[in-house]
Structures are given as C-alpha cells and as structure tokens.
TrEMBL record:
Pathway: Cofactor biosynthesis; molybdopterin biosynthesis. InterPro entries: MoaB/Mog-like_dom_sf, MoaB/Mog_dom, MoeA-like, MoeA_C_domain_IV, MoeA_C_domain_IV_sf, MoeA_linker/N, MoeA_linker/N_sf. Pfam families: MoCF_biosynth, MoeA_C, MoeA_N. This is Molybdopterin molybdenumtransferase. CDD domains: MoeA. GO terms for cellular component: cytosol. The lineage of its organism: Bacteria, Bacillati, Bacillota, Bacilli, Bacillales. It catalyses: adenylyl-molybdopterin + molybdate = Mo-molybdopterin + AMP + H(+). It comes from Sinobaca qinghaiensis.
Length: 426
C-alpha cells in the first residue's frame, strides 16, 4: 500500500520554506557590471540633487526685480556681464541691471533668481539685451535638492538594480557597488526517459526541458545556476549525484521522481541524506508532489517532473528563499488583480496556479491560460507572464470574475502575497 501524504496549504508550505536561510554574502562590483544584480546596502543621498541651483534652459540669468514693470511697450535693457556654460561658475555676484548669459546645466550666479530663455530675449549686440516682459522670482530654476534631499534613503537594499538605479549609483559616486552574491543553486534532472537537447528522439523518450527551464528561472531570480546533469532513475546514481551536488551549492533543485511511482526515488534519497522533510504534499495544482527538505545548512527542493508543476514549484518556493538571501524584503511574486477571460467550471479542492497571459482591454487587465492547463504541459509556460491563482474550493470560477494573479516577469516582488488571496468562489 502506497503511503498517504497529507497536503499542506500553500501558504503554510511557503512559510515553512521561508524559515530556512541560505548563505547571504556580498561582493563589490564595478558600477558598469551592477545592472541586474541586487543592491546589498541601502542607497542614501549623501548630497542634494541637483547639488546647486541650476539653469534648465539656455538663456540669461536675471535678477527678477530688474524686470519689474517691463512690458510690450516698456522694454527694459540689461547689461550682459558675462557668459557661462554647464560646468563653469560665474566668478562674482551679479549686480543691479546685469544679466549673465547662461547655458542649460550651469549654476545660477549669485544675485540672480530667475532665467529667461534665449528665444524670449532681444539681443542688442553681445553686451546688452532687451526684455519686454516681467520675469518672476524663481522662474525657470532647477532648485538644489528638488530631485533628492541629502539624507533620504532612495533605494532599499535587496532591490534589483535597474538602469535608473545605475544612474543613481553613479550620481552618488559609487564607482564600486556592494551587491548581493548570487546564491548558487544546483539542478539535477532525474528520469530514465530523458534525452538531452542535442540528442535525437527515441521511442518512449522525451527531451529534458526542466533542467534548462530551471537554469533560466534561477538566473531570472538573480542566482547562479549550477547544472549537474540528468540521471537515470537509479537510486545509487541519484543519491551520489545529490550528495556531491550538495557539497558545492547553497540550495539544490531536483526534478522528477518525487511522487509515489516505482522509480520515484527522491523521497528515499532525501531520507538517506538524513534531510529534514518539511512537506511532501502541497494543496496546490500543479505541483502537489513538491517536496522540500533541509539538509544541514542547505535546502533541497524536490520539484515535480511534470514541467508545469516544476515551474510553479520553483516560483513559489525557491525564488523567495533566493531573494531573501539577496537581502530583499519583497522576495515573493508580486500580486495583482485581474479579470478572468474565460470560465474555469471545474471545482478543485487544491489551489490552482494557471500559467496565463495577461492583456488589457478597455483599461482592464484580463488573464487567460497561456496553453494546455495540465501539470505535464510544457507549452503553457512559454507564453505565461502571470499565474492565475484560483483558491481551492467546491465551485468553479466564471468569466469576468476578479481574481488574484502573481506576476512572473516583475522585478519588484512583494512582502507576502498570501494572506488576502481572493477566496474561493461561493
Ligand atoms: N499514483 C499517483 N501517481 C501520481 C501522483 C499521485 O499522487 N499518485 N501524482 C501525480 C502528480 S500530481 C505529479 S506532478 C507527478 C509527479 O511525478 P514525479 O515528480 O515523480 O516525476 P516523474 O515521475 O519523474 O515524471 C513525471 C512526468 O514528468 C516528465 N519529466 C520528468 N522529468 C522531466 C524533465 N527533466 N523534462 C521534461 N519532462 C520531465 C516525465 O517524463 C513524466 O511524464 O506524478 C503524478 N503521478
Ligand atoms: O503535482 Mo502534480 O503537478 O499536482 O500535477
Ligand atoms: Mg513519478
């Protein structure tokens, strides 16, 4: 008689995994290589941005009081005291009746309090200008600190370094950037039916897609993937491969062999390793057989062999642990609500994670399955940018209903998307 496994609610299973910690180290990288990594320290403004009042236009820096009363029929004439481009500073305070020819980005000279664009000025030779309008105090100035005030935390540690953050790092002088080291996540594919991508198909065999999908998922999550190869369903070979891999990684993913079949050796292998199994059944679909265990300081993720189940298992359980090791306080997939574009009439006692694509129509986000909605489907993963989350229950779901989705391509993440998932349709 096959052992009966007790399914754990998804939220509890995620919570159990998050009690583990992976090694969290940091390293210094040249700024030009930091894009796509996770910032290891908060980025705080150590000076104002801009650091001085500056001109947003090519024009003339003026003393606004000198233009009081100017109008179409009452032009004022002002003396050009000099000229500065961006990077230069006018050497003395500007006096009554004077203006300074100033280019975009240059510091506003002392004494001036506004800028007038070149196009609005009549130049009288190079020494004087004529103005036929009043210029108001503070017209056309980019103020010191208007973009960022000294002392403000601009980016929290654990944040994905996007191009804008690279710009901020440069702004604040970080030629070298402290980033989280990539967690090393190993991947082992198990299954006697597996061929590698370069091999021709044979009767009864399929190509190993999980390993390459998992490599890409590890990298998308910000980690370093270490692929150990595929192994036949042989207890000793798989035990040896798993034991060796665990020596050199922070976490290890195995795919396949976690169910109750005659050649599903992973549960016995986890036992031989003395690993502490947190759960071996989760109330989710696909991925109900997902098994996670702690092996000393390492975490072992026994993901399902079924491609869609393997994919979901990674995003729900492996990704947040990796992101936490990279100092993120938002390690989980980001949640967003959307409307169902079709019925899901069949009730399921387990929470479903439908690989789906989202699109906008009349300003509303709709979601529909990205392909065959089965655990064994490989094609539905390719077009998926979200999981539709359909909590388990006794009824199905109908087109037009508002549901929660989890975003797959987002880099921001969420603290804990699980508490308020839209409940089962009643
Ligand atoms: N009697 C029962 N049978 C099954 C149960 C159950 O509860 N009782 N659970 C089913 C569920 S749900 C799933 S999911 C699968 C899980 O299977 P395993 O994790 O043991 O994986 P395998 O048996 O090795 O393979 C399953 C399936 O996936 C294909 N596969 C495996 N590895 C790869 C790979 N690297 N790339 C692409 N495809 C892969 C494999 O050929 C099988 O078709 O068990 C159900 N059975
Ligand atoms: O674990 Mo299976 O993927 O539920 O289909
Ligand atoms: Mg199996």
């Amino acid at each position: 008689m096959v052992e009966k496994r007790k399914p754990m609610p998804v939220e509890d299973a995620v919570r159990a995994v998050m009690k583990q910690t992976l090694a969290a180290e940091t390293e210094m990288l040249p700024l030009a290589e930091a894009h796509g990594r996770m910032l290891a320290e908060d980025l705080t403004a150590d000076h104002d941005v801009p650091p001085f009042n500056k001109s947003p236009y090519d024009g003339f820096a003026v003393r606004s009081e000198d233009t009081t009363g100017a109008g179409r029929d009452r032009p004022v004439t002002l003396t050009v005291a000099g000229e500065i481009g961006a990077g230069s500073v006018f050497p003395r305070p500007v006096e009554k009746g004077e203006v300074v020819r100033i280019m975009t980005g240059a510091e506003i000279p002392a004494g001036c309090d506004a800028v007038v664009m070149l196009e609005l000025v009549k130049e009288l030779g190079s020494d004087a200008i004529e103005l036929k309008r009043e210029i108001k105090h503070h017209d056309n100035i980019s103020f010191q600190g208007e973009d960022a005030k000294k002392g403000t935390v601009l980016v929290e540690k654990g944040t994905f370094i996007n191009p804008g953050i690279s710009a901020l790092l440069a702004t604040f002088g970080f030629a070298q950037v402290s980033v989280a080291k990539k967690p090393r996540v190993g991947i082992i594919a198990t299954g006697s039916e597996l061929l590698e991508a370069g091999e021709p198909l044979e009767p009864g065999k399929i190509r190993n897609s999980n390993a390459y999908m998992a490599i890409a998922q590890v990298e998308r999550a910000g980690g370093e993937a270490v692929y150990f190869g595929k192994f036949n369903d042989d207890f000793d070979d798989c035990l040896q491969a798993t034991t060796e891999a665990l020596q050199v990684v922070d976490a290890l993913i195995t795919t396949g062999g976690v169910s109750v079949g005659d050649y599903d050796y992973m549960p016995a292998i986890f036992e031989s390793l003395g690993a502490d199994v947190m759960f071996n059944k989760v109330a989710m679909r696909p991925g109900s057989v997902t098994t996670v265990a702690a092996a000393g300081s390492k975490v072992l993720f026994g993901l399902s062999g079924n491609p869609s189940a393997c994919y979901v298992g990674f995003e729900l359980f492996v990704r947040p642990l990796m992101r936490t090791a990279m100092k993120s306080s938002r390690p989980h997939l980001k949640k967003q609500s959307a409307f169902l574009a079709m019925d899901f009439p069949k009730a399921n006692p387990f929470t479903r994670f439908v690989r789906a694509s989202s699109y906008v129509e009349d300003g509303k986000v709709y979601v529909k399955p990205a392909g065959l909605d089965k655990s064994g489907s490989v094609t539905s993963i390719a077009g998926a940018d979200v999981f539709i989350v359909l909590p388990g229950g006794t009824r199905g779901y109908e087109k037009g209903m508002k549901v929660d989705t989890l975003l797959l391509e987002d880099t921001e993440g969420s603290e804990w998307p699980w508490s308020s998932i839209v409940p089962s349709y009643r």
